[in-house]
Amino acid sequence: MKKFLLIVACALTTVTGMANETKTFTDQLEVSVNGTSSTQQTTVSVEMLEDNYINFVLENFVLEADGDELNVGNIEISNLFLRDKGDYKSFSYNANLKIKPGNMAGVAEDEWMGPMLGNVPLILNGKLTDNKVYVTIDIDMMESIQQVISVKFGSDFAAATVANTLSLQNTLSTKSTSTYVEDYGQEMVFDDINGFATVVEELNTTDINLCLYDVVLSIGSESAPLGQIVVNGIETIDRGAYKEFNWTGDVDVLEGLCPAVLKGKYNGQNIYYTLSIDADAISQIIDFKCGSDFAPAAVEGAASKYADKLVVSVNETTTDPMDANVEVEHLNNGGINFVLKNFVMELEGNEMKVGNIAIEDLPLYDGNGYKYFNYTGNLNILPGELAGTDEEDWIGPMLGNIPLRLKGRLTNDRLYVEIDIDMVSLDQIIHVVFGSEIESAISGVVADAQKGGAIYDLQGRRVQNATKGIYIVNGKKVVK
Question: Angle between the 2-18 and 441-451 helix axes, to the nearest 10 degrees?
């Protein structure tokens, strides 16, 4: 019996302890400012959370260039999702961020420059093991202080190698839309390229490289070569019958880097993807579509509807709780479609109609007594459907593709969601919380027992009347 009790106690300690473990790493930080590099030693901390999330902090970031020091501050990012790469886990962030003051002795809070810059565009990519972290950070401060800052912490792990190469042929369709103000909305549709070969390089992780060679845009007898378009290190999600990818970043095309969005699926015999490139050099948005979409996941049964309170924080000002509704459709591939319907912000007496936040085919992961899901990427908010509200009254669709991060947990009767929306055009960071936190099975037992006089057996089941045996009361084991 004593041995059994020891095992239970260890299990409780392990589960609750793992959720808040913080790892600290000290290594070399290489900083490049407009091509001029310097090196310093600094510290990064990673707090391990439940559901494969982490909180990341680069402390007391100081720029050293040409003998001058510039105190920047702390780069703190919460709820970064960890993706399993076999020998390590990866994490990423691509959105605007407000740098916080550092905590270095002898430096006053108003001497940290980072917080004065407001929200700055920041791209972070990292790799993590139990005893090592490698991070790259790119901060575009060109508009504010005419600097592009590139940061590298630690040394890279062994690079992924190509394990298999596939050449998948299909029809490539292309169109472009002018971004000239006077020509906005004009569209050119180019001739299809039949039998176009897309090369997929499968890496020794879950990632792939995708290569489009010798791309030529043609209309009749006129043609314009684009050359090759290569996207490396694309993360994939295993959907069973196929792998799915969703990537946002820069591609090198037309002798320059251009923002791009890539989404697709492949299964070893076939491929489908869409690729949108914002080619500023020629004031065109070029949209590619290759192949036909695989059979989409089908909805299983009626949508689950959750009604709960929603709280919004805008640049750290918080609204009163509002009534809100979320619909969740379960798919036959194990994923879900998610919709926060008719999102309306009410702040300081003003009402802003945002719209519907709809994300399709989110993978579900098994938690401890619940399922969890996450999304990171750019998203178009859709018009809402409130009676008496015209489509043009919804502000969300006007913002175009905006960076959005979502994390959530669900059970049959409860849903908890956090959403971060970066509305840089409005100089706002919007944090949305729907519902109340869903605890894991064991941590919920411990938390409830510590808060009140609830009684649980050793299997974590709440009991009304304790008979003979061993129970947990107020977080302590009691023999009856």
Answer: 100
The predicted pLDDT at position 120 comes to 83
Structure tokens belonging to residue 443: 């941590």
Residues 6 or more apart whose Cβ sits within 8 Å of residue 459: none
Are the CB atoms for 243 and 266 separated by under 8 Å? yes
Which residues, given as ranges, of the chain have pLDDT below 50? Answer: 1-19
* Cα separation, 480 vs 466, whole angstroms: 7
Residue among 418, 316, 318 at smallest CA distance from 100? 316
Pairwise CA distance, residues 183 & 178, whole Å: 6
Q: What is the DSSP string of 254-309?
A: SSSEEEEEEEEEE-SS-EEEEEEEEEGGGTEEEEEEES-PPPPPPB-SSPEEEEEE
Find out whether 325 and 293 touch, Cβ atoms under 8 Å. no
Q: What would the two tokens of residue 145 be?
A: 């202080």
Sign of CA dihedral 452, 454, 456, 462: negative
Mean pLDDT for all residues in the chain: 84
Q: What is the DSSP string of 185-247?
A: T-EEEPPPEEEEEEEEEEESSS-EEEEEEEEEEEETTEEEEEEEEEEEEE-EEE-SSSEEEEE
Q: Say how far residue 273 (Cα) sits from the centre of its chain.
A: 20
User: Do residues 443 and 17 touch, judged by C-beta distance below 8 A?
Assistant: no
Whole-number Å distance between alpha carbons of 435 and 261:
32
Six token digits for residue 280:
């500023």
Give me the pLDDT at residue 9, please.
Answer: 38
First to last CA, the chain: 15
Residue 96 vs residues 99, 142, 233, 269, 427: alpha-carbon distances, Å: 10, 14, 22, 38, 10
Q: Are strands 304-314 and 89-98 parallel, antiparallel or unpaired?
A: unpaired
The Cα 318–Cα 336 span in angstroms is: 29
Q: What's 400's DSSP letter?
A: -
